[in-house]
DNA sequence: GATGAATGAGCGTTCATTCAT
DNA sequence: GATGAATGAACGCTCATTCAT
């Protein structure tokens, strides 16, 4: 429907740009409209209100990302490989799109509780992907059979999230994607992976 | 100093109460003043501006917490024990003070970038405590000698933080402190601790 | 002429329906268009602007009413009979068409001064009918020969109008048309009619 | 309380001036504030919102008027005299305060249904005064013993209201107060007063 | 004639901060 | 030191109207 219209994505991309450049609280609707090259009122033909722009932004960008990860992961055999791919894709996506990184890691978190709860709904899709990897790893013996999946997932997501946030707070001074292998190793150990055997070559 | 006057802490505690009950965006200066039992203008005799209240809040509460941890940790011998104490104290402090937990984990993160950067300054003290534990663990052979301290610290802090946030988002439905041992184990593994041997009794 | 096209009346009737159901301030052009089953832009092929719809609405509905009254009155002999017919027709028309009653008595009065002045132009036709009745009554001796026609007309119109408005504000709880005879009697007295003699049968 | 502060009446008077000069829809809060010589925000120390200004305006001005009428009327003996005083005071008040006349007769009626209903609440006090006069007149034999008080009140109020509105629509071209005696006479007749006897001298 | 997507001006209200008392 | 009345900048959203198709 409306999502097929070019202006829909145009406005979302304008929102990312404006928020990344000026911060969440400086992202007035009129500024987003100007950046998108449309009139203020046009925004409201595609979005219910300002909050709807931000939720849609997150849904579109994160949704696309989750789908990509999902299909890429399908091609890997071991849970360890899948986890590495997830971490690495996550880091690469944000490295390649620093505006989006700032928006999702810092700016959007300044929103009110309701918006943040909706963002969390979207994130659940991502957390499910992690859970699948963990479950598979437990079942095929890669990970400890006593692993608490919920807590392990919190470790994985928390570590990735904190790593990205720190990188941004340090103004992207170093190469985020270069950390993938080390982080992967930390997390694998955390999951009780049989450290020496599966890791071959470049990962360690 | 102004900090020695009773009204200083009175205002900070009022801020915690007001933010915990009504959320960051409902925490108007006049409401904090009413809760503290002072006039609006009085706030500005003790704090430069509203942001200053929130930074001071974080400094006072987190500062006290870091000092406590630091002195408690001094009594423990191994890095593993210190880490367990840190995790457990962290979880217990927030379990025992849910208002403060909501304020620091959710509400204060809605503030703008500048405020969050100052909050990060305060957090650095906490991160240093973690770094000390990790360094000690590496030096005395408890942890892997190739451990990247910065990334391990991000894993530890990120995992703790995500665990607390998830607990709050689930409206404290379960016992946070009960997770200490399991989280500790995950993180120890992550750090390459010689899993089986050192953990005795209740940790595993 | 444009007025001859079917969509002209279709839009006016849609306007009455929309205003009656949702009130003046909720009667957006796009809503009227939807109710009329035409596109927004089509409205502007038949009406200069929104105000023009409302004026035309009043002209059409009130104009029709005045013509009806005029021809009906012609069949009556005395001024008193004509006045009764006028009051009774007025009450019946609005009783039978409550949507229109709400629109003309309440909603349209929320319009701005210019629109209300144009509505008054239309009303002048109605006031002229009243004036004719009064003049005839004075001339044939039914009414006081000192009667001030302008003021008597204001009394008649003001009384009818206030009676209808009160009826609507009371949510049509009682039968408006049942008041015709009593109101007629009050107004006849006001006009100095020789009370006892001319009123025969049902009027008193 | 707040009503005792001088700024309360200052803002109400500013509202009358601004609405009278520019019309209801041009009466922005900021314009009223400027006219009152206060900051926009100050308005909200004395009034809940814009609507509250207008209701208060009506309550203050009409409330004062009703009290005045009530006490003046107490000094008159007959219902006829009381009615004359009421009409004459009504006309004089609005003649002496043409801005207020425009505001209450034309502009305030453009407000939405809720505001108009609150205005009607205030008006009920005025209608009660009329009802008292009518009841007294019926009881002491001045008026017809079959007089329907509700309808007679609608005639009296409707006639006065229509007379004032016509005067304003004619841009105050003639002397409104000069009509008091004639209107009084019309209404007395309407009420079935024994025409010849009670009216002495100046009334007719 | 008919459409409907796009336009953009306009405004009530909040609240951090000041300063005369 | 303490007060609290006053300030005024800032912004999301609606809807009558246009015009390219």
Show the helix and strand layout.
The structure is a homotetramer of 204-residue chains.
Chain A: H1 6-22, H2 29-36, H3 40-46, H4 50-73, H5 79-96, H6 98-105, H7 113-139, H8 149-169, H9 180-190
Chain A binds a DNA duplex (21 and 21 nucleotides) through residues 5, 7, 28-30, 33, 38-45, 49-50.
Protein name (chains A, B, C, D): TetR/AcrR family transcriptional regulator
Keywords (chains A, B, C, D): DNA-binding
Pfam family, one (chains A, B, C, D): TetR_C_4
Structure description:
With 204 residues, chain A is mostly helical. The first copy, chain A, has two domains: 47 residues, Arc Repressor Mutant, subunit A, CATH 1.10.10; 145 residues, Tetracycline Repressor, domain 2 (Orthogonal Bundle), CATH 1.10.357.10. Chain A is 69% helix and 0% strand. Chain A contains nine helices and no strands. In chain A, helix 1 crosses helix 2, helix 1 packs across helix 4 and helix 4 crosses helix 5. The longest helix of chain A is centred in the middle third of the chain and has 27 residues. In chain A, 38% of the residues are buried. The C terminus of chain A is likely disordered. Chains A and B meet through helix 7, helix 8 and helix 9 of A and helix 7, helix 8 and helix 9 of B.
């Amino acid at each position: 429907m409306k999502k097929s219209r070019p202006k829909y994505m145009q406005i979302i991309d304008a929102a990312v740009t404006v928020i990344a450049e000026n911060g969440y609280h400086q992202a007035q609707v009129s500024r987003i409209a100007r950046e998108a090259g449309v009139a203020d009122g046009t925004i409201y033909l595609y979005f219910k209100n300002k909050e709807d722009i931000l939720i849609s932004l997150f849904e579109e960008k994160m949704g696309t990302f989750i789908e990509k990860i999902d299909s890429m992961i399908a091609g890997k055999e071991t849970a360890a490989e899948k986890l590495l791919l997830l971490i690495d894709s996550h880091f690469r996506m944000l490295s390649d799109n620093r505006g989006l990184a700032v928006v999702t890691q810092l700016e959007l978190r300044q929103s009110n509780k309701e918006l943040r709860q909706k963002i969390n709904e979207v994130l659940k899709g991502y957390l499910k992907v992690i859970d699948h990897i963990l479950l598979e790893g437990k079942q095929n013996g890669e990970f400890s059979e006593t692993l608490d999946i919920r807590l392990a997932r919190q470790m994985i997501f928390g570590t990735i999230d904190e790593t990205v946030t720190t990188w941004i707070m340090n103004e992207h001074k170093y190469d985020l994607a270069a950390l993938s292998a080390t982080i992967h190793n930390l997390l694998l150990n955390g999951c009780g992976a049989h450290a020496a055997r599966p890791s071959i070559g470049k990962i360690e």
